Amino acid sequence: ARDAAAAAATEAERKAKARREQTATARRELTRLTVEAGLPDDRPGLTSRVERLRELATAVRTALSMLVELEAAQARRRSQHEEAARLGEATDQAVSAARDAAGAAERSAAAYDARREALSATQQELARALAEAADEQRDARIASGAAIESRVEAGKALAHAEDALGRAEHAQADADHRRRGAQESGASLHRAPGLLAAALAGQDVDPEDWQALRAAVAGVVVTDGNALLAAHRDLSSGPAAHLQVRLETTADGLYVVTGRDDEGQAPLAALAGRITARVEHDRTLLTAQQREVCEKHLLGELGEVLRKRRLEAGLLVAHMNALLDGVRTSQGIRARLDWKLREDAAEEVRGTVGLLERPLGSLLPVQREQLLELLSSLIESARREDPDAGYSEHLRTALDYRTWNAFSVLIRRPGADNEERLSRRTALSQGEQKVVCYLPLFAAAAAHFTSLAVAAPLAPRFVLLDDAFPKIDVRTHPVLFGLLVDLELDWVVTSERLWGDYPTVPAVAVYEVLRSSQERGVLPYKHLWDGRALRAVGA
After folding, report:
1. Which H or E run includes 322?
2. What would the 3-class secondary structure string for 153-180 be?
3. Which residues of the chain carry a pLDDT beneath 50?
4. Is the Cβ–Cβ distance between 336 and 433 less than 8 Å?
5. Counting Cβ atoms within 10 Å, is residue 368 exposed (0-12), middle (13-18) or buried (19+)?
């Protein structure tokens, strides 16, 4: 037995020596490789380099974002230069117009001088006309004798005219009586407040044409008293109740409906005109204010924020898929995240997304106007859906870019050329479905922690799993734990049967909770896994 033990010891020492030589050779090769690559040859140094590479990746993403902003600024500068060129052309045109106006003034002065010369010539013509008028006066004296004879004949005609005048005066008196009656009737129309205003709304009628006025009034006068009272009740109890609608009777027996606003009591026609004018004024003011806010904030501040957020989201999804690349389940199934515009997205959202993908400075004026109209339409849609909410809530609802896109999980089976979307009808076992769902979940967590590495590079990357991996094939457990390790996630797992002691896990601490029926409380018993063996440490 001693000889056998000595032989075994000799063999073990030979193997150990060979292993030490292999270790030394590997160590020399590692040292040579690290020297050639300029890297440290210890684990802390390599870990530090990995953290530095993460920081560099974050810095590269930041630089790319700054580059996008720089390109937008350059585009805005080019747009400003183009605007300056257009203003220069407009200035040249204005100078040319001024020169044309000066030439026109000179031509007008020349025409004025010509008119003065023509006037002097006209005075000479007047002198000749006066001489001719004197000759005509002499001829008129001769004709005067003939006129005296005609006067006698005119006296006879006057007698006949006086008789006709008497008959005309009687007719005039009768016409005056009818006119006074019409005027009195028209005055009664004027005394009814708001009657003429309502009757003549949108009509071109002469206020002195009483027949036309009465015809217009007949179209708005209500002869059914019950209908009038019912309409008054509806106004008093409906949306117009705050106008204090009143039904009054004039001295002529006409019913008049009036209401009150900030300017006082007035007929409904005048009141409707004032309210319509105020509403139109408020709408114009609101439209101008909304346009100013949209141009300043929607296109400027919020537009750039939306564009930056969508760019960051796209980079985050790309990073998730980069982490999932090469990861397969026990059956060789690969998973990938798809983040794109929802199929049921509105046309306004589709147009907005297309324009937001380009920097604001690179958009043409027509495209800027189109983007402004699309964003305003989204806000108006949110207002119609919830009119009682505030404007900030409408903005939050309309511009929540996260609702524009949708996530879906795409899987590819071994040997398949196309991908299929994961759904309830996908032909997978329940365990495989859970595994495929875990893959993007872990990738999303890792991508999220990586995006926060700039602010907190040493923060833990915790994933907490309660009753981890239920109903999943035991052959897949090492793959999932190995994925957590590959993604550099720090995890805490509770399970009745999983200890995590797999070759894919380099180190894990396991606390077995022991319970006794005779004692109160529990006892945690610690185990350590070093990647090769599980060692009990104790309570």
Report:
1. helix 303-324
2. HHHHHHHHHHHHHHHHHHHHHHHHHHHH
3. none
4. no
5. middle
